[in-house]
Amino acid sequence: MTESVNKVMTAKEAIMRFVKDGDHLIIGNYTVGTCAELVFEVIRQGRKGLTLYSQSGVFDVEVLVGGGCVDRLVSTYVYRAGGKNGGSAVERAMQDGTLEMEDYTNFNYNARLVAGMHGFSFMQVLPGIMVTDLFKKRSFLGDDKYRVIKCPYTGKDVVTVPAANPDVCIVHVQRADKFGNAQYWGALGSVVAAALASKKVIVSCEEIVEHDIIQSSPHLTVIPAHRVDAVVEVPWCAHPTEVLGYYNLDRFMYGLFFTADSTGDGLKTWMDEWVYGCKDRQAYIDHYVAKFGSGCLDDIKAKPYYSAPADYGSAFTSYWTEDGKARGLGVSLEEMEAIMKERGMLYE
């Protein structure tokens, strides 16, 4: 897909087109601004057999596991309240033998994505990991979780992790244009590496803006259009988590969720109401307002706090003048080609 292709679609269409049973799926967001509506849509469509990557799996991973979508999980942290008493979906699934998990440090998890992003097959990590249970205890990756190789320069042992190239990344950002240029600000975590290491990228955003706005703030574009397969505009997409510049964490809703999540029946009841019972994010927000009023949402809306503008201006934007002359030589392209041909410098 090129930058000029309009990639706007609904969450339902994006998940239907790009997320398949058995895929390696990565949640690009890290604890904040999670792509909740995309996660919910994966559940609504009943995807199965997923290998899920998440740098910090809390609310989002809990519902995906609770929805029976995930067979394998790669993470650095997951919500396991209640410990072995099973106070979370992940813990219950692990006790039931329906979920396998491979645990990494934040650094090692991101090293796998950075390797994948750059087209490497592995990445060296710090040797201190070898004395920990993270190195010694292995699940479905077995010998491939870590490998120790000889450095070709020093002959010393170095620890490596394999590159990760998930099939699909789902990620939420503040804004994007219709072509897929995605802009994000705030705590990054693995957002960039997760997206750029993946084969397909589905971006949800609070709002779709004109391309001119994207061009005026290029430093905020973390995922370029040519890497994005779908753009989904979903206000309140990350609720109950927060999105910088739009809304804060909804602690009330978060508390309700984790109270329900403490038992399997409680989580099922919550998901029947908020995931399966709401066909999309607008229905979810409408249900929230009907049940709790709009005050809770009004209270967490962000107050404006704008950054200072940056001047990206220049004397000119092209090597060619408006009348088609090269600025350095004062000749047109045709004249330049004629000169080069005359001097034997042009090869056709």
**Any idea what the CATH superfamily of the largest domain is called?**
Glutaconate Coenzyme A-transferase
Distance between the termini: 30 Å
C-alpha-based Rg, rounded? 24 Å
Secondary-structure arrangement, i.e. CATH architecture of the largest domain: 3-Layer(aba) Sandwich
Q: What's the CATH topology name of the largest domain?
A: Glutaconate Coenzyme A-transferase
Unreliable parts? none
Q: Please, how many helices?
A: 13
- Based on Cα principal axes, name the global outline: globular
Secondary structure: number of strands: 12
Helical/strand content category? alpha/beta
Q: How many domains in all? A: 3
Main β-sheet: number of strands, strand sense, barrel status? 9 strands, mixed
Could you give the order of the helices and strands? HEHEHEHEHEHEEEEHEHEEHHHHH
